Amino acid sequence: MSLKLEDVTYTHSPGTAYEMHALEHINLEIPNGQFVGIIGHTGSGKSTLVQHLNGLIRPTAGRVLYNGEDIWKEGYPLRELRSHVGLVFQYPEHQLFETDVITDVCFGPKNQGLSPEECRKRAEEALDHVGFPKEMYEKSPFELSGGQKRRVAIAGVLAMNPDFLVLDEPTNDLDMDTLDLLQEVLMEYDGTILLVSHDRDFIDRVVTSVIYMPGDGSVTEHAGSYSELLEKLRGKPAAKEDKKTAAAKSIAKATVSGNAKTAKLSYKQQCLLEVLPQEIEKLEAEIAAIEEELGNPDLYTADPDKFDALSSRLNEAQQEKDDAENQWLEIQMLKEELEKTD
C-alpha cells in the first residue's frame, strides 16, 4: 500500500485578493507501516494536507496517488478510497450524525458491504478499544461530552480497519487514562498511521518520524521524534539546508534587501528571544502539573467541573507552548541570517 503526493499545491481563494498558498509544490511519500507525526503551528496547513489524502480536498495542482493511481482521475472510486484511508476529523461533531452511538460506528463497515452482524461486531470491538462504556451505546452522540464524542469518532474509523489511519488532533478533550489507552490502541494498529497533534509528549511517545509544516506552504521530513527535530532546529544549521531553514533565510534576505541600512532584529524580537525560553519552561512545568492532577483516577467523579477546566487548560497550555517554540525558532533563524550579512 502506498500514498504519495506529487508536486501538490493548494490555493485558498485563487484569483482573488485573499489568495493564499496553503501547500506549495509538496512532494511526499508516506512510508508504509510507519507512524508519522505531522506538526506545525495553527494555520500552517496540517488539516489541509491530511484532507488531500482521502480526497476530501482536491489539489489546485499536482497529483495524489494511492497505490500508484491518481485519485482524481475520471471514474476513480473515492468512496472506496475512504475505506482504505480513514480520517478522524479535528472536530468530532463534523463526523457524528446518526441517532445513537452504535449506529454511528456501524456506518463505515455498513458502507463496506459487511453484514449487520459483522458491522455490530466491529463497532463493539472498536468502542471497546477506545474505552467507551457499553451502557452508553444507545445514547445520542450529541448528548456526549467532548472527550466521549472524540472516542466515538475514533472508533467509527477504527471499525473500518483502514490501511492508513489519519487522526487530526485526536488527543484533544481526552483524560490521561484515555490518552494511555489511545496510545496502546495506536501502537497495536496493523497499518500506517498519520497523527496531527500539538501534544509534543504524546507524539514523542509514539511516532517513528515527523513531518514539520513551518507555515510557508512547504514541509520538512525528519526521521525521529518531535523533540529531536526541535533540538535540530534550535541548533546551528546543518551543512545540508532543510526547507525550514531555507524559508527563514528567504524572509531574512527580504528584510535585509528591503531595509538594508537597518536590517536587524527589532527591540521586541530581541526581548522575545530572551523571554520565550522562560515562558516555554513555565508552560512545560504547568503542563506537567496539570497532567499529574488529571492522572488522579478519582478526579472526574469527585469534581467533574474541575476535571473539565483542567482538560481545557491543558489543551490551551500545549497550544501556547507550541506557538512559543515556533516563534522562538523563527526569530532565532532570522537572527542567524542577519548576522551573516554584517
Polypeptide structure, described:
This protein has 342 residues and is an alpha/beta fold. The protein has helices at 46-53, 78-84, 101-111, 116-129, 146-158, 176-188, 200-206, 226-234, 243-258, 267-294, 299-302, 304-339, and strands spanning 3-12, 20-30, 35-39, 61-66, 69-70, 85-88, 164-168, 192-196, 209-212, 220-223. The strands form two sheets. It has a six-stranded mixed sheet, sandwiched between helices. The chain has a four-stranded antiparallel sheet with strand order 2-1-4-5, with helices on one face. A hairpin with a 2-residue loop joins strand 4 (61-66) and strand 5 (69-70). Residues 236-252 have low confidence and may be disordered.
